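Quick one:
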Amino acid sequence: MARVFISYGTKNKELADHFIEFLQLGMGVQRADIFCTAFSEALPTGENFIEKIRTELETCSVVILLITEEYLKSAFCMAEMGVAWGLKKCCFPLLLVPYDQLNKTPLCGMQMRRLNNEEDISTIYDELFTHNIIHGRQTAEFNKRLPGFMSFINNLQKGNYRIEKDKSGYYTAVISEIRKVSEKYRCYGIKGQVQGLPDDGKADSDWIFFWKEMYQDFQVGDWVRFKISKSEIRRFDDLGMARNLYPSELDEITIY
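Output:
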């Protein structure tokens, strides 16, 4: 069984992928020592995935929790957190949310670290070595790769990342801002920028734009799944170059 269990929200797969890459290349943790459902082979075909996850939680040495807004909204993630706490596992909560958002969770009172802080990540590196997860120091490689990982985290928080189309032709994004333009329309800023359109790279931000009552109203923090019929770039005094995305399909999705 793997020695390190990575708990993350499915909507944060890009974060999980980059963190695991840094664990392996920057810290020297072996892939065979990591369990994460982001790995395609983590949940074998035909196997009960809940039992598999339970078994990995029970047998691992360390649980690393990548705690974001999406993580705290996920019932499945909160269940993993509760199981890890109940089993008295060695937990490494790594936060991209304020500390006080953990006040009503099983981790309240536990020492936590910030994912966007170099000193905290360096401390995690030392502690993984202390817990024998890392068998040999590679400090030079760690220091070489740390700035790149920090840059990714900072861009992720700012929304400077790529949104790729899935196999069914849908994009998935989180609503970051509501722009009031007219009672006739709805306009929502999203984190990240959609890729694969003819006008890629020509706008500073992306906005979902549609007639009122064509789709439901959304709130900041909602996750949406959509297809695009067309896009249009316009310049605004307050936004700079902004791209309107006109959806042909648009629905809110639940975070698991």
